[in-house]
Amino acid sequence: MQTSDGRSEKEKMLAGDLYDASAPEIQADQAAAREWMVRYNAPRDLPPGERRQLLLERFAAVGDGAVIRPPFHCDYGYNISLGAGVFLNFNCVILDVVAVSIGDKTQIGPGVQILTADHPRDFAAREAGLEFGRPIHIGRNVWIGGGALILPGVTIGDHAIIGAGSVVTRDVPAEATVMGNPARIR
């Protein structure tokens, strides 16, 4: 269904513009992702090749040797790109209303949340059910400690380290170590 500007709500979502998440096309995509997560998360002993095939079925890109340990949760999956050798430990969440890219050899600890979804600061727009997303880019060979939160719009440079439990609200330069709430360079 197209809106007054000629774009569907999904097109607006993917562009990072305000959109209505209750639109039927978006709800159908979320339902498909939920069905996929049931298949991905249920068999804990699934052979690596079959688990990789499931990732390839749903994600934008999956590099060689990329591993996600279940359980794993996402909004859509099709906005996620994993480089070669990426590792996500148990209980990671990626809210991927827009692009999430994770560079080669990045390691992500258990319980990490990568959140592109954002909400208007204007209460009337929030009340109308509108939201938007800001992309997240994580460079290569990054190490993100367990329980960290990566907030919308953040870019993390190559070889950076994010301390466990940190809340990353701003871009992180290459090779920096950040920790805390909010995360600061140490």
From TrEMBL:
Keyword Transferase appears in the UniProt entry: yes
Molecular functions (GO terms): acetyltransferase activity; O-acyltransferase activity
Pfam families: Hexapep, Mac
CDD domains associated with the record: LbH_MAT_GAT (cd03357)
Residues of the Maltose/galactoside acetyltransferase domain: 10-64
A GO term from the CC aspect: cytosol
Keywords assigned by UniProt, alphabetized: Acyltransferase, Nodulation, Plasmid, Repeat, Transferase
SMART domains in alphabetical order: Mac (SM01266)
Family: Belongs to the transferase hexapeptide repeat family.
Protein name: Nodulation protein L
